[in-house]
Amino acid sequence: MTARTGRSPALPFDRTALDAVSLDVGGVLVVPDHGIVAHALTTAGVAFDRRRFADGHYAAMAAVDRARSRPEDVTDYAHAFAGGVGVDGDQIEEAAVALAAVLAAPIWHQPLAGARAALARLAAAGVRLAVTSNSDGSVADTLARYEILQVGEGRGLVVEHISDSGVVGVHKPDPAIFRATADGLGLAPGRVCHVGDAGGFDADGAAAAGMLAVHVDPLGLCPDAHVHVASLADFVDRLLGPRGTGGD
Q1: Whose CA is closest to 248, among 70, 152, 118, 135?
Q2: 20-23 and 128-133 beta bridge pairing
Q3: Is the per-residue pLDDT at 201 higher than 90?
Q4: Which of 30, 116, 184, 209 is 20 to 30 A (C-alpha) from 140?
Q5: DSSP string spanning 187-248?
Q6: Nearest-5° angle of CA 225, CA 75, CA 200?
Q7: Could you report the per-residue pLDDT of 64-123, keeping only the tens digit for each?
Q8: pLDDT at 37
Q9: pLDDT tens-digit profile of 14-64?
């Protein structure tokens, strides 16, 4: 795997091109809780390398893109994650079954480093915030419960709108869910930038809805001509300028 390293290139748009940012949840704000994942694999009796969990997620999402997995079908994700964290080939199937049993919406709550600070920078810069997520209707509750974000006042950061596929009734990459986010913000889709960790579900779906689109791909695994960033923090640095350079 080749990580995206070195000086990040400029985005093909600047702050004046957008009024709001739509955020995917998994791989942008949070990842599956490492403790729950480790417990599931340990209970299944398979050996793994917990140090590789972060890369394992993005390797798994790349596999989802290659396989064009159906929304909310974790089969390809679970197999690729298991392989990405060092599970032996003869135990991949057993590990994937154990992972599939726990990869429900409530497990997605371990914050990614730098994500909260990046969100705060966007808000301080006057960028309006929303969430567009494939889930089961519980994403708003999970994000609020773990004090990550919520609509209105609370212990997390404030966003204006959440589009959860389990509530909206359509899944990414259907452009309708992205249009629901734009409508919830009262904006034309072209004034919204969506940031997600899947080329198909996120970047392609958002672009089809007329949004600006950015793909979080820290390992450099996506071969497509999306706008790629290493993380939400990387995106914010490139949009607003690194801290200490007048971007704040």
Answers
A1: 118
A2: parallel
A3: yes
A4: 209
A5: --GGGEEEEES-IIIIIIHHHHTT-EEEEE-TT----SSSEEESSHHHHHHHHH--TTTT--
A6: 20
A7: 999 999 998 999 999 999 999 999 999 999 999 999 999 987 899 999 999 999 999 999
A8: 97
A9: 999 999 999 999 999 999 999 999 999 999 999 999 999 999 999 999 999
Please compute, for residue 68, the number of CA atoms within 13 A of its CA located in the half-sphere on the CB side.
2
- Strands (E) located in 46-146: 108-111, 128-133
Give the pLDDT of residue 7: 45
pTM over 0.90: yes
- Give residue limits of the domains in the chain: 15-29+112-240, 32-106
User: Using an 8 Å Cβ cutoff, are 143 and 112 in contact?
Assistant: no
Of 83, 181, 189, which Cα lies nearest the Cα of 134? 181
Question: 15-29+112-240: which CATH number, 3.30.200.20, 3.40.50.1000, 1.25.40.10, 3.60.15.10?
Answer: 3.40.50.1000
- N residues, the chain: 248
Check residue 54 and give its pLDDT: 93
Please, what's the largest Cα pairwise distance for the chain?
53
Structure tokens at 178: 């992205």
Amino acid, single-letter form, for residue 25:
V
